[in-house]
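Quick illustration, no need to memorize.
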Amino acid sequence: MARRWLVTGCSSGLGRAVAEALARAGDQAVVTARQTASLADLVAAWPSNLVPVAMDLRDTQQCEDAVKAAVERFGGIDVLVNNAGGGLFGAVEEVTDEELRDQLESLVVGPWRLVRLVLPTMRAQGSGHIVNVSSTGARSTVPGLAAYLSGKQALEGMSLALASEVAALGIRVTVVEPGGFATNYGNVLAETSAKLPEYAGLSGMLGILRGLEANPDVGRPEEFGETLLRIIGAQSPTPLRIPVGPGAHEMLAEAVRAAETELESARALISAAPPAA
């Protein structure tokens, strides 16, 4: 039986790859982008499977309209993929209040809104799967991406609570943590309006991010799409957080080891005898 999807951020990169993979599998989806013209070739290739809807995650009405379109067209929603959301590059000191709010609106508030909007339908169905696309960076350190990764960490925190709240309702929650993929992500990163010379060294990290597209060692978006289909189709219980892509597992394994070392150091510090008076 064909599954019914709502996938955000399908104009390029991972979202487009997911849309292509599910269409090839015979599933149906509302696919969103800020400008539906960017979806024209995608929809032309699979007109019976994909329905384009204009949606900016920061726009409440457009989010409501996208969910309504999926329910009216397909009769329900089996899978929500929160994928959309651009990044902001800049040191913590350089990020303005307005820039931070805009970043969190896209990465946290918008996805949270969509979760809230699809849950009544999934509860009525007694089933559903919510996939929140995070990043391996959410559990490691990437200087210059504090605003972006703060949003991804918040998304993961919400997902942890959500999973425990809806499990008894037959609804699954998965956080997918992509590693490096050739998605042109680095080239569309916004940069902070303020640039302080003390943080000029961060430009090296920006260069790395902008070079991912041409790096033969990173993952291809189509691989991500096929992997997500396997996760959705898994019958047995799946982990809540799943790293995906070349080196993603190893990166997070190292992050876990670093966290364990930090925790042990904190325990030793707190339990140490107080200095003599």
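The longest helix spans residues 97-125.
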